[in-house]
Amino acid sequence: PLGVLEAELVGLAAAEETLRAGLTLLEKLEATLVFGYMAMNLAYLLADQGPDDRLADARALAVSVIDRVGETTIYSGTARAALALIDTREGALASAEAHARQGRTILGATPGMSGPAFVAQIEVLLAQRRTAEARAVADEGLTMIRTIGGAGSYEIRLRLAAAEARHADGAHDLALETIR
Hints:
Elements: H1 2-9, H2 12-29, H3 32-49, H4 55-69, H5 74-90, H6 93-107, H7 115-127, H8 131-148, H9 155-168, H10 172-178
Helix pairs in contact: 1-2, 2-3, 3-4, 3-5, 4-5, 5-6, 5-7, 6-7, 7-8, 7-9, 8-9, 9-10
């Protein structure tokens, strides 16, 4: 959605403003699925790029998505990825890994939407210093991109995480290739 692209092009503040305006309207309209879509993206952006003092807000949004749309939708898969990033940033790595795995499982049915879950799993594995596993997940994510021809608005973030994993595992040339 527009908010995700704004985060890349203009910055997190503009993206959050756009997404929050949409969420306010959608709550009034009781449009649960569209609310879930926008809220999952805002939760993920805040979890990934937001300052530490916004992580509680990101967590509340992610939990709200799961509560509103259920456990097995693309929305809850991305919300789980957001929770994984939050827990990684807060040092709760066991919980982060569980959320990342749930996100990958849920989003596995829709490869084009699975970028956030790949990123979350790579990040938690890197935080655990499990570089070979992080690289394997990164390689899976890159294969997914090649197989389906892209990963939408989260492709850049997935490529960056994959480059970090490859670099951390000593594959410096492959890391450079990943972002070219």
